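Supplementary Note 3. Input sequence used for the single-chain structure prediction.
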Amino acid sequence: MTLLQIMSEQAPETVRLRTDDLDVIRKELLRIGVRFERWHAARRLPAGTDDFTILKAYRSHIDRLSAEGGYRLVDIVRMTPTPADPGWPQRARAARETFLERHVHDDDVVRFFVAGAACFYLHVAGQVHAMVCTAGDLLCVPSRTAHWFDMGECPEFTVIRFFQKEDGWVSRHLPDSIAARFPTLDDLLATT
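The predicted structure, written as discrete structure tokens, is reproduced below.
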């Protein structure tokens, strides 16, 4: 379920808004300069669809957004549990921890969720906007917007990423991270 929860940076327990209404989400995010859209594939994609087929199914959306934002590079990232792989839990935990600290990028953060779910926490103007993205959600966060990302205890998602520069994914961590004071993705989903 796509969800937006807005909290005070000083008091995470103070929830200003919690909604799954896509129109409300779009309007609230637009207020802080963040673009939110819903995309639909040209055809149904079964689980395990290869990257080429995914890109082909969303080609018209990808081309439009790339032209609008000057995104020259597009790729796909998957976090998929592999129970047969004994190293999976450690790799998943390490990947999650990498993004749990507040940071910024010099490139826009543009992600389209093909499958699964994760949460972007946008720290803007004294508030934290926890945006739980699910399949069909596009989120475009302007460069240098303070944020962190939680993929949950058991990450599972497939996303299309857009970049203006090859090193656009490189982040700079910010001092005094507030991330640990806020509910995790798993917490947010448990209260729905």
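The mean pLDDT is 93. The first strand starts at residue 3 and ends at 8.
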